Amino acid sequence: MSSIKEKFNQISPSEFFYRNRDLAGFSNPTRSLYTAVREFVENALDACDQKGILPDVHMSIKAVDLEKPDPKPYILTVKDNGPGIETKHVPLAFGTVLYGSKFGLKQARGMFGLGATMAILYGQITTNKPVLVKSSTDGKIQDEFELLLDIQKNKPVILKHTTKEVTKRGLSVSICLEGDYAKAGSKIKDYVYETSLITPYATITFDDPKGEKFHYSKIVNEMPPAPTIIKPHAHGIDVETIRRMMVESQFEIPNIDDAMVEKVRKDLGLAKNNLAFTGIMDKAKKRWKTLSRPVRIIISLMSFLKMDFDKLNKIRIDDIDVPNKKLYYWDFGDSKSKSVDMDPESPYYKQLTGTVQGETLTTFLTKGFQRIGPPTAVKFAEFAGFKPDKRMGTMTNEELVKLSDSLQKFEDFLSPDPSCLAPLGEEPLEKGMKKFFKPDFCAVIQRPASAYSGFPFIVEMGVAYGGEIRPGGPHVYRYANRIPLLYDEGSDVVLKVVNDTDWGRYKVKGEPPFVIVSHICSTRIPYKTVGKENVADRQEIERELRLGLQFLSRKLAAYMSKRGQADMAKKRANLYAKYLPLIAQFCTELAGKTKEPNYKKLLEEEIIVDDKQS
Amino acid sequence: MTTNKAKDRKQKVNEKQQNIIDALKDHGAKVYGDLNNGQFPKLSIPSRSVSNIVYDKKLRQYILGNSAALRSSRNSSQLRSFTQLMWLAFFANRLTQEKKSSTLRDVYYSSQAFEIEFEDQSESDNIIVDLEAVLSKPREDFHIFPEERSSIFGDLNIEYTIPGYEGKTMNLSNHPDGYAIGPSLTTAELLDTSAEIVIAIEKGGLFTRFVEEQVDKKFKSIIINTGGQAPRSTRTLLKRLHDEMGLPVIVLTDGDVYGEHIAMVIKSGSANAAHLRDLTVPDAKWVGVWATDIEKFKLPTIPMTESDIKRCHDLQSDPRYQEGIWKKELDVFLKIKRKAELEAFSKYGLTNITDKYLPQKLELAKSL
Questions:
Q1: Of A243, A242, A235, A247, which is closest to residue A406 (Cα–Cα)?
Q2: B32, B109, B179, B258: which is the annotated catalytic residue?
Q3: Of A476, A450, A479, A447, nearest in space to A547 by CA
Q4: First to last CA, chain B
């Protein structure tokens, strides 16, 4: 077992990704160019979002040799006005694959850095050109790096590093990579267009290889509130996560070194005078409440060892054997292992066992998870069949599995805290949709937060009808965590919900000029495939989508019937204008008159009546 | 004496025309007034729905009840048909004033000169029935005639009243194929006849046979071919022959449920024409072919179809079939479930029907 593990560790993360680049979306020149664009643009937007800066992102794709047929090398440059990256971090951030880069529970477009590094790696593989990074964190000095990636060692190779005076803060990354713009172009343009729709607070420009410029100015000047990092929810947990959380929460027996002893003496007010063992214990008892945990542990150890500070300096604690109630230590003076018995009746015994065995289950739950208070923790312990004060450190493997299962099954936990989510908000979404589609009718909704499997999510939706929208709808724009989803439309849950809707019921018929925008925000989007282009039909998400769409559809239907009424009034006016003169003509002859009756005021009156109705 | 009578009749005809014209003018003036006062004009049209058709025992025919539908020009779904109805009134007024006649199909095409579109002829036919209902007059009164033609033969002198033929007279036994019953004949003055009875017969073939066999002379009769279900103009003429000339009317049809009903319609009208009077001959008699005749005369038969049987059951619930030979024969038809045509008599020789059957029935008719 252990030898296989070692072998795994010997493959550098760079190498691993190099071998598996298909997984990250770098399977062919078309897809790779598109993926690289996405990774850099999303990094730029994320960086600005995190610092509350209104993003101004400029992207350009230039062919190295315009004449060559696709696929061919392109230079992709993405520049932002974000916080930049500190000089010392630049080589590591762009010259290594950040293996296991840790990520708190909050919504963001991507795992920071990973995809971008993949794009750099791909560029280097296909064109053997370095990545050019320009970064300024203060808006005065800009670092310029030329970097290559040492794939085997997962280390950056700095080819060139210069500095320069500038006037703007931000980061610019430029790579050379093999791509196929002829094929990827339309998707990239769609991506930029759709991204600017869901990011109405950002200015995005794109210069394409053919010299075309696409400019999307920001529509709103306020950013949606930033998400907060929060603890996990009990429903979204597995055994491995519990194990990791336990390691983090367990207390270690402090090292008894000079510094530690010094601290204990100081806390006991014994920095200068030396007391004997019993004196120390008396002093500790008096000051117990003010003492920190590590100090308490040292005092507890001393109580069983019956040693003063001088003697304590000459031993090392080896093990606290709770089942046998023995304390093992190494005596440097005698150069041998010794042990003392621990009296379980001693108040210090509990302090030690508590330290070794970790927190109680209830403490573990209330401290480690969101939205669990002590009463819920106790209730859960009963449900799971554990004592509430069961020490986490004493859990066997089987018990951990049981704990994990029970956490999933227990239904009385509050639903996940959505404060880690960053929906766009109804107002910016509506403004964006109105600006983009110039519709006759627009409505948006943000559903209340919900959760699936312990992961909170929020659904935002909007519908727009008429105006400058092209017919042939509904045109569906799908987003997840502010990323447009462009591929694999067919199997997506949003499409399923849209297609399940009987639009005739909402007076939407034929090939309507009709747009639907859906935005799913979650700490984890349940993508169907590794390509991350379609969302799986999780029942909870489908329900929220359905409710959101129903709400909007009803609004649309109300608008449509109003629109229908106006059409009808117009139609009626036309009918009157057509038939009343005929009736007048016929009845004039029938009645034996020569002059036609004055029916004109009837036409005018009728129109006024209809205006009042609508 | 004769001239006085003719004058009387002429006056009567003119009066009838004037009534129509006055009625049309009234409606026109009302609509004109509404428009002038800033009101949307509307017309009340007696409802012809099944629920509003009732049998009047006194009149011995179906009539319309009291419910009426309001057709308003304000309602955009009725505006079109309102205009169509107004146009038709306008058109009928011109026809009547100018003493011109028109067919149902003519009406359909004439509308197109006035930007009045009818989807098809059945739509324009419906509007014509609407106007009949509004005026309580058959369309023939306002000079619109059906295309169906039936014919008449016999010693009857008439005098035309239509423009161009006014004063001309004609004897209806001069042409052996018979005379088509159209607008000119329906509106003609009936001068005099030597006939003592009118025989209405369902089929053209038998009509020709009757003329050939000189039934008109042998039995002093006027022979009328109804051509199946008798058209309104024919029914009008039958009524006039009965009322004005004092002639009894007998009806001879195929021996089936449809034949029986042809006779019934001549006698008491149809539900379709419940909005009209003066189309019925309540004294008309159905003399055959009865269901009981099939057995009696040993006629070759064909089995009744399912729709024949269904029709029998339908008529059993009709109030007019609750008594007398109407009920009796209907029951027998249902019992034997077979039918016989008028031509069935040919089994016993082509003239068997005129030589044997008809005299018996004529004799019988006197006692009916």
A1: A235
A2: B109
A3: A447
A4: 35
- Rounded to a whole number, what is the distance in Å from the CA of B126 to chain A's nearest CA? 19
Residue A198 lies in a domain: yes
A584 in B contact zone (CB under 8 Å): yes
Asked if B25 and A591 come within 8 Å (Cβ–Cβ), the reply is yes
Q: How many domains does chain A have?
A: 4
The boundaries of the domain holding residue A363 are: 234-248+359-409
User: Is the full-model pTM beyond 0.80?
Assistant: no
Inter-chain residue contact B28 with A589, CB threshold 8 Å = yes
- Cβ contacts of A301 within 8 Å, gap of 6 or more: A253, A256, A317, A327, A352
Only one residue has tokens 């060892």, namely: A305
Chain segment B113-153, per-residue pLDDT in tens: 887 888 888 888 889 999 998 988 888 888 888 776 789 99
What's the token pair of residue A231? 């603890």
Interface pTM, i.e. ipTM: 0.75
Residues A381 and A432 in one domain: no
Amino acid at B367: S
Given a cut of 70, the residues of chain A with pLDDT beneath it are: 1-18, 23-24, 96-114, 248-252, 488-489, 529-532, 605-614
| Domains within chain B, CATH numbers bracketed | 2-145 (1.10.10.10), 194-367 (3.40.1360.10)
| pLDDT on residue A611 | 41
Q: What is the pLDDT of residues B18-49, one digit of tens each?
A: 888 999 999 999 999 998 888 889 899 988 87
Shortest CA distance to A54 belongs to which of A143, A169, A189?
A169
Question: Is B32 among the catalytic positions?
Answer: no
Could you give the maximum distance between any two Cα atoms of chain A, in Å? Answer: 140
CATH assignment of the domain containing A555: 3.30.230.10
A141 and A287 belong to one structural domain: no
In a domain, A225, yes or no: no
Contact B218, B253 (CB under 8 A): no
Q: Do B40 and A602 touch (CB under 8 A)?
A: yes
Residue indicated by tokens 């997506």: A492
